[in-house]
Amino acid sequence: EYVARPAGVCTMMRLPYQETALGLDAAFIGVPLDTGTSNRPGARFGPRHIRGESSMVRRYNISTGAAPFESLMVADIGDVNVNLYDLKDSCRRIREAYQKIMAAGCIPLTLGGDHTITYPILQAVAEKHGPVGLVHVDAHTDTGDTALGEKIYHGTPFRRCVDEGLLDCKRVVQIGIRGSSYSANPYDFCREQGFRVVLAEDCWFKSLVPLMSEVRHQMGDGPVYISFDIDGLDPSFAPGTGTPEIAGLTTSQALEIIRGCRGLSVVGCDLVEVAPVYDQTGNTALTGANLLFEMLCVLPKVKVY
Amino acid sequence: EYVARPAGVCTMMRLPYQETALGLDAAFIGVPLDTGTSNRPGARFGPRHIRGESSMVRRYNISTGAAPFESLMVADIGDVNVNLYDLKDSCRRIREAYQKIMAAGCIPLTLGGDHTITYPILQAVAEKHGPVGLVHVDAHTDTGDTALGEKIYHGTPFRRCVDEGLLDCKRVVQIGIRGSSYSANPYDFCREQGFRVVLAEDCWFKSLVPLMSEVRHQMGDGPVYISFDIDGLDPSFAPGTGTPEIAGLTTSQALEIIRGCRGLSVVGCDLVEVAPVYDQTGNTALTGANLLFEMLCVLPKVKVY
Amino acid sequence: EYVARPAGVCTMMRLPYQETALGLDAAFIGVPLDTGTSNRPGARFGPRHIRGESSMVRRYNISTGAAPFESLMVADIGDVNVNLYDLKDSCRRIREAYQKIMAAGCIPLTLGGDHTITYPILQAVAEKHGPVGLVHVDAHTDTGDTALGEKIYHGTPFRRCVDEGLLDCKRVVQIGIRGSSYSANPYDFCREQGFRVVLAEDCWFKSLVPLMSEVRHQMGDGPVYISFDIDGLDPSFAPGTGTPEIAGLTTSQALEIIRGCRGLSVVGCDLVEVAPVYDQTGNTALTGANLLFEMLCVLPKVKVY
Amino acid sequence: EYVARPAGVCTMMRLPYQETALGLDAAFIGVPLDTGTSNRPGARFGPRHIRGESSMVRRYNISTGAAPFESLMVADIGDVNVNLYDLKDSCRRIREAYQKIMAAGCIPLTLGGDHTITYPILQAVAEKHGPVGLVHVDAHTDTGDTALGEKIYHGTPFRRCVDEGLLDCKRVVQIGIRGSSYSANPYDFCREQGFRVVLAEDCWFKSLVPLMSEVRHQMGDGPVYISFDIDGLDPSFAPGTGTPEIAGLTTSQALEIIRGCRGLSVVGCDLVEVAPVYDQTGNTALTGANLLFEMLCVLPKVKVY
Amino acid sequence: EYVARPAGVCTMMRLPYQETALGLDAAFIGVPLDTGTSNRPGARFGPRHIRGESSMVRRYNISTGAAPFESLMVADIGDVNVNLYDLKDSCRRIREAYQKIMAAGCIPLTLGGDHTITYPILQAVAEKHGPVGLVHVDAHTDTGDTALGEKIYHGTPFRRCVDEGLLDCKRVVQIGIRGSSYSANPYDFCREQGFRVVLAEDCWFKSLVPLMSEVRHQMGDGPVYISFDIDGLDPSFAPGTGTPEIAGLTTSQALEIIRGCRGLSVVGCDLVEVAPVYDQTGNTALTGANLLFEMLCVLPKVKVY
Amino acid sequence: EYVARPAGVCTMMRLPYQETALGLDAAFIGVPLDTGTSNRPGARFGPRHIRGESSMVRRYNISTGAAPFESLMVADIGDVNVNLYDLKDSCRRIREAYQKIMAAGCIPLTLGGDHTITYPILQAVAEKHGPVGLVHVDAHTDTGDTALGEKIYHGTPFRRCVDEGLLDCKRVVQIGIRGSSYSANPYDFCREQGFRVVLAEDCWFKSLVPLMSEVRHQMGDGPVYISFDIDGLDPSFAPGTGTPEIAGLTTSQALEIIRGCRGLSVVGCDLVEVAPVYDQTGNTALTGANLLFEMLCVLPKVKVY
Ligand SMILES: [Mn+2]
Ligand SMILES: [Mn+2]
Ligand SMILES: [Mn+2]
Ligand SMILES: [Mn+2]
Ligand SMILES: [Mn+2]
Ligand SMILES: [Mn+2]
Ligand SMILES: [Mn+2]
Ligand SMILES: [Mn+2]
Ligand SMILES: [Mn+2]
Ligand SMILES: [Mn+2]
Ligand SMILES: [Mn+2]
Ligand SMILES: [Mn+2]
Fold first, then answer.
1. Could you tell me the pLDDT band of residue E9, with boundaries at 50, 70 and 90?
2. HEC string of chain C?
3. In 10 A of CB C280, how many CB atoms?
4. C201 and A252 in contact by Cβ < 8 A?
């Protein structure tokens, strides 16, 4: 029966809740952590609010024809219980939680949380799949080395991943990059690794369908992880985030990017940096919920009408 | 283990979720309906936000010594699936849902929703317990007869209850009543039925402990229902509601009222009219969550340290 | 004399208020109803806030040269007194109110209210003009059949209009359509009727001037009604609405659509689904006010410099 | 017929609008000026929002039995057209507008606007009635002399009134005064004139009924003006104002003050300093609307049940 | 050492604060005035909030390679102490403050304040440099003559500049102009002076790089002032402003405009009309901070990598 | 000269800024840390917003006659540069910063930040003064032992202080304590140490002047530290905080508490837990600014008129 939108205990898309990933093809999971944030905190409430607004998302993707729930077993498996007072211990907790998900053969779709969390997630993902290709949408490369002597916060996850060999660096693309910098050559590191860096300036005023054709070629058949920092979007589309940068991507471009990943061997996805307290309308969380649904729709084996 | 406050799929006080009331002594249940609202809508999202903020509420009531979870089986049983487009059909749906709860021998603690819902809830409650005593906290008596020809909206539930004999009228008290009126003698109906009407003016600047002593005497041993309209509180304490009236009760008085119900034969409770979109901080929903916990703490058989 | 923007009892564009449409060529009228809303309510306050923000709108349309007040008698005729507690009775009240407006030979420009209201408005319009062509801007087709057994809510008005023969179906265009769906083929109904459905995806990154040239051809000389659901716009432009969908139209495209209707035989217009409580800046209401002014500017007989 | 709360072109309490005060016993009138504000502006939108929220206020005052509309002809006469760019010219415009109201024999109830406006209003009032007694509720005495060389802004109106002999200084009371100061002895001026200054500290935790008994005695039979700065209230009750000061009056005390003026020869009233943009819920404007209604209820000749 | 973003007494980009412009090549300076605003006030707090959000802006401009702090001595020199109660006296205060800055040979980068302030700023600038070219981004031409008899407010600064010969009129371009008007031919004045008026409609859907090539040619070698009214941007990008107009520029276009000024002889810049109270997320202030940084990056003599 | 309230680079009360405490009797200092927060983060921006709102606070305390700036050298010395990514390292940084302040013989008045910071502050204070008496206003005792294995977060500072002998436990009072608990006997620890615990319930409806007379006696002549958690106040007065608890203290009681400390040997003060993003009006930050000023006013040697 049709359920009124405001009704129901709040899970992602009002899916069934279960405690573990056992028996699932894909699972939505929250990581309510934001203590890796350099500016405005609040992403710890990202999972709660993305779930809340996800009641607007229906089961069929008309634009692409995808019907994920006809092909995959999907549930909401709740949140990782993070340690808000020790970021490194939280990383351990996240890694261990995702090792269990990977062991269950389930594809995780993560509701962040700040971008720090992608580092321990990728530790677990690469442990199973080996170094992964990465489609990374963000205003920032997140490849800093340290801040105040710290190696772990939301500005460094992909540097840490490179350090540990979790990425197949030739199969990394970063889209939407922009903003001012602490140094004159901040993208040198990325390019030295072989990453493709697509600046926001190169995306202005146009469709990203051609870019994604190239990205699919770049990614090839290997395992691919999608990491979507909501601040890759322009702040007009996603005001509710911690480190906004002006002149970013549009939501239409975001859809083109994710939909352009269809056919890739996607082994995991995340949507991070939704900070609800800066999102008075809930529309940033709603955007996050839609983007997560779009990611689900491009997973391998999803039926398309 | 301690769970971080932002973590967890969102149920009331992060209690287990179950689909029915079977096996429970008490259950939290949401009724996400607001189409009976005369002014600002939004209470349909009351259950979602009260659950969200309830992560601040811990298991022991230090002020009263109550430890409800040591005595009672309690769960969150989700929401009634209301019909947002037909208020009368929603009333039928609510009544039927509560008939099942009553049949299970479970005490319902309701997260509203606008005050319309108390009418069908009391139909189910009185069907089991006979006419009930009522502790009603509100800025309004909610005993109007009709508006625009309609007999059912959030201004009339207790008139409808009187019409159907659901209330033991000598055991009804209405506390916090105030505001302007459409007629010169709006309380005449209440007093003719035998209700005690306690005006907000008579509560200003003082403790309500003495009042509650009288209320307990008034209620005696019969079944009692507690209906708490959050607009009974002053708008400074509960801005997030649809028909605020100035110069109302304090939260300390609200606690005195509910705590003053200990010892009564409470058979059901509701907390209604939280409209989260007018509650930017979430503090009205938080207040609602606390008041519901306090109601749980005065249920019969709750252990007190 | 110049009037300070904050000054004046609040009518649309600070026009004179009169109680009926008698003597007017066109009239602004509010329908403060939102009980047909499936998700976030609040559109009942759309008329009040659109009027408030309309003090920013001046009398001449520089972009198009239109000077509507040099050609037409226009006033604000207040609001339909809706029945918030019975949606079907509200439809009756709206229909009767618009029958009077049509009888006066006046073109109504409606400040909604949720989209349910277009159904009874079109009953009155078609009663006078026969089946009308429709330029419908929206994220949704609003051609659902029922929800929870109900045939009338904001997801069904154009299905009801088809049922009653109020539309000249070959002269219907729906622009901006997008979002997920409850079924795999949601546009089949529209296309079977002969509607043209223009998806948002087909509007991204480009001007709609060419589309509107085709639309004018489609509409021909017959009577045309313009129904503009503010959620046709992207939520970045119109956050204050009840069922936002990401990746929608821009306000520049909205202006192109409305301005592209010049020359058509427009017999009525509405702007619906502005929900001010989700519009903290007032900019959604301001957008609504501007779009209504633009509609006024394309009415037949408006002088153009 | 009952009118739905959101319906209707927005006048104070949805009273009829008329352009002048002719034929009225009392009139609501707005002065949308805030350029006399020293800190947070926004009171220019006070009249619009007080009118909007006043749809919650009904016709009978149950607490006092007053039925003003059974005794007095009352209407909303719109706003004074202020000059936002020249404060002194605005004062001239206000004075002239009120001279016309006074000439019509009508009692003005003003929706401010910042407190600067009381100075030109009292020029017009005293021109008719001679020096008036004053019941002034405020956090501030508003008796500064100059700021930056300026003699006119919202910190000086009552100094200017003293300068011009508009006040009967022995019949002035200022209630709710508090806050830090630019000098060690800021109340000396007031007390030298003979004003009674009632500090907020002297109002904490108690009823002001005894105070008002003394005030009535102080005021005697002469003409009295009530000037209520909403910042006299504590910011918890009235967040939406420009120069909030902590630890102020409660709304219950505000009601006691105004109701305590019954029997006085009230010749005019104002409610100033509501700044809606700092009042997200609208509850400060709602409070202003209620207080204005209470002032209406204590005008001479109002029938009491 | 890296400084945590929330840390530090709040100056623009956390630059050193000094009281005067002596010894500086360029200086950020605030003008916290908003009493020239015709609609929503609040820009008086623009400087405070632009400074606050500027902690997100880092020292290198990656997109353009500019490294302004390697070439120029820059500091924050605080705010002009305006007279909030007399707009004309504020203009005198501003002019005198800028005369001192110009005398110090320092380029001012101004944090507004409403657009009125550009008039006295240009008095001081032209006193030193003679009539200047102007790159003016705005929704409005700001060339009105009077309102309510007043010659000075935020709708008239450039008319006043023309009156006084402060502009080299053939070297004036106004970009982003749109919105309704009080008359049929509002741009006649501008064009008669020789201004180039670029309507927003002519900017929709496309890059402004070609336009800026023409503008550079128009400006030639003479002194140029950049005046950027944040309402030139679409309200989706800059909700926090006083007189928003729909369908404006994007932030990517804003960057193209400012970056397109590289090579010109820029002698001063301002960013005006940020009204923080309408900017709940702070993102409009953040946009303002970024645009001011971009202006700094195109000053003469800035090193580019 | 009088400075307009919005003007000036933002320091506490617009005092001069200096980099160190040298030569000062008292200093305002910020600690922008919130990673010890268990629920809603945001207190990292407390210092910035308290400074911003402090422009409302003037130099003389009329209520008490205190004129602190006539007796003491006071400045704003900026913020401690915290490590947002490692709470324990932040504690080290804070401790070292305060050791320098203490060495300078200056009394620190701290703008928090969450309550974690009081632990390292008291390490520095007790290092100089020996174990201190404590006037602690809070909803919570903050004497938890661990959470998720962590010994340091905002729920444990005073347990850690006891562990390290920083408090003179017989001279500790905790005022405003309330809320639910994780265990049945949460105050046992406090009472075993000899703390006086004053529950919020014991403060309702009454003046705290008598309590403070007892507290002064309890504190005697020894050194006293005042730690004021803004959540000690009721959420109606201080909505902008991270772990609100209903039914708390009023601001008038807060003033009574602080003013009641006059005569004690106060060696340091803090005001913590202001989370501006939950404080849309700024009034919580304004309250914090006022309370800090009141603390300054009761420092030893402050002149009283
Ligand atoms: Mn990132
Ligand atoms: Mn990012
Ligand atoms: Mn009620
Ligand atoms: Mn009520
Ligand atoms: Mn629609
Ligand atoms: Mn729609
Ligand atoms: Mn005042
Ligand atoms: Mn005041
Ligand atoms: Mn401008
Ligand atoms: Mn402009
Ligand atoms: Mn604490
Ligand atoms: Mn606390």
1. confident
2. CCCCCCCCCECHHHCCECCCCCCCCEEEEEECCCCCCCCCCCHHHHHHHHHHHHHHCCCEECCCCECHHHCCCEEEEEECCCCCCCHHHHHHHHHHHHHHHHHCCCEEEEEECCHHHHHHHHHHHHHHHCCEEEEEECCCCCCCCCECCECCCCCCHHHHHHHCCCEEEEEEEEEEECCCECCCCCCHHHHHHCCEEEEHHHCCCCCCHHHHHHHHHHHCCCEEEEEEEHHHECCCCCCCCCCCCCCCECHHHHHHHHHCCCCCEEEEEEEECCCHHHCCCCHHHHHHHHHHHHHHHCCCCCCEC
3. 21
4. yes
Helix F283-297 / helix F251-259 crossing angle, nearest 10 deg? 20
Chain C residues with CB under 8 Å of E246 CB are 237, 251, 255, 286-287, 290
Q: Does A41 touch chain F (CB under 8 A)?
A: yes
Q: Does residue A303 lie within any of the structural domains? A: no
Let me know if residue A95 belongs to a domain.
yes
Cα→Cα distances C110→B158, C136, E274, Å? 37, 14, 33
E150 in Cβ contact with E116 (< 8 Å): no
Above 0.95 for ipTM, yes or no? Answer: yes
Cβ distance of E83 and D149 shorter than 8 Å: yes
Q: Which residues, given as ranges, of chain D have pLDDT below 70?
A: 1
Question: Is the residue at D281 inside a domain?
Answer: yes
The answer as to whether E58 is a domain residue is yes
Structural domain that includes position E256: 12-297
- Is F6 near chain A, with CB under 8 Å? no
pLDDT tens track for F93-105 = 999 999 999 999 9
3-state secondary structure of D231: helix
With an 8 Å Cβ cutoff, is F160 touching chain A? no
Comparing C-alpha atoms, which of A127, A83, A130, A66 is closest to residue A101?
Answer: A127
Total domains in the fold of chain A: 1
Q: For all residues of chain B together, what is the average pLDDT?
A: 97
Which residues of C are less than 8 Å from A4 in CB distance?
A: 38, 148
Indicate if the pLDDT at residue B9 is higher than 90. Answer: no
Q: What is the pLDDT of residues E243-262, one digit of tens each?
A: 999 999 999 999 999 999 99
Sign of the CA dihedral with D260 first, then D262, D266, and D268 last: positive
**Does D209 contact B at CB distance below 8 Å?**
no
Beta strand E223-229 pairing with E196-199 = unpaired
* Token pair for C241: 């609405």
| CATH code (residue E40) | 3.40.800.10
In the block, tokens 């006649």 appear at: E188
Residue among B253, A63, B162, A122 at smallest CA distance from C181 = A63
